[in-house]
Amino acid sequence: MSAALNNSAPVTHRLGDEWLMAYAAGALSEGQSLLVASHLSFLDDAPARLAAAEAVGGALIDDLAPELMAPDALAQTLARLDAAETSRPVAVPRSASDDPLPAPLRDWLGHGVDELKWSFLGPGMKKVKLWRGGPNDQRLWMLRAQPGVKIPKHGHRGTELVLVLKGSFSDPHGGFRPGDVEESDGARMHALDIDEGEECICLALTEGPIRFESWIARAIQPFIGL
Ligand code: ZN
C-alpha cells in the first residue's frame, strides 16, 4: 500500500481522531466526509486508523447505559451506522497519476482536475466551488494559487479545514504539504503564504462567508461568493 504513495513526504499535519470517529460513524456532512476521505487517501496507515476509530466509536455505543436511551435508540444508531457504511465516500490509496485529486474527490466529481471550471479569486488565485450544505453553512471548494502568492488575512465564522493536494504553503503554524490538513478556528484572522516553486492546489471546507481584513479584499468579497 505504501508503494502507492511514492514521491510523497510523510503527512505531518493529520486530522484529529475525533474527525475519524465522526467519519466512521457517518456523522459528517457530505462535504466533511469528502475532505476526510481525501485526507485519509494520503495516509499509509489509514485502514488501521479508521478501524481504531470505528472500534472506539463502537465502544462508546456499548458504554451508553441502555436505560438512558429510548427503547429503539440503540437499534436506530446501529441502523444509522450500517447506512453510513454504504453511503460515505470510501478512502482508498492514491494512485500514481499526474492528477493531484485524491480518488474519493475524483470519484465524487466524476472527472479530474483539468475539467474543473476555475474562476477568479484574487491576484494569482483561482477557486472552484464544489458543494454547499450541512450545518453552519458549510462550503467545500478548491483553491489554486500560483507560487509565491500571499493569501490576504481573513477569518471565517466557524471551523476551517484546508487539505493540501499539490504544492505547499506556510503560515505561523508551520509548513503544509500534500496530505496535510490545516485546521483552524476561523474566528482568528490568518494569512497563508504559498511556497515558491510550484502551484498549490487545496481542498477547503469553510463555514459561512470568508471575512477579509483589508477593505479592498472586503470590497470584492461579494463577487467571490465564498
Ligand atoms: Zn482561512
List keywords for this structure.
alpha+beta, 226 residues, five-stranded antiparallel sheet, disordered N terminus, single chain, globular, 6 helices, 31% helix, binds zinc ion, Jelly Rolls
Topology pattern, helix = H, strand = E:
HHHHHEEEEEEEEEEEH
Distance between the termini: 37 Å
Basic shape: globular
Q: Count of DSSP E strands?
A: 11
Give a short account of the largest sheet. 6 strands, antiparallel
User: Remind me, CATH topology of the domain at 105-224?
Assistant: Jelly Rolls
Secondary-structure-derived class: alpha+beta
CATH class category name of the domain at 105-224: Mainly Beta
Q: How would you write the strand order of the largest sheet? A: 1-2-3-10-5-8
CATH 4th-level superfamily of the domain at 105-224? Jelly Rolls
Work out the helicity level.
25-40%
Say which molecules are bound, naming each kind only once. Answer: zinc ion
Gyration radius over CA: 19 Å
| Unreliable residue stretches | 1-7, 65-69
Number of helical stretches of at least 4 residues: 6
Just name the CATH architecture of the domain at 105-224: Sandwich
Mean pLDDT: 83
Work out the strand percent.
25-35%
How would you concisely characterize the structure shown here?
The chain has 226 residues and is of the alpha+beta class. It contains 6 helices and 11 strands.
Task: Describe it.
- The chain is of the alpha+beta class and 226 residues long.
- It has a domain at 105-224: Jelly Rolls (Sandwich).
- 31% of the residues lie in helices and 27% in strands.
- The protein contains 6 helices and 11 strands.
- The strands form 2 sheets. It has a 6-stranded antiparallel beta sheet with strand order 1-2-3-10-5-8, with helices on one face. A 5-stranded antiparallel beta sheet has the order 7-6-9-4-11.
- The longest helix has 18 residues, at 46-63.
- The structure holds zinc ion (ZN).
- Zinc ion is lined by residues 154, 156, 160, 190.
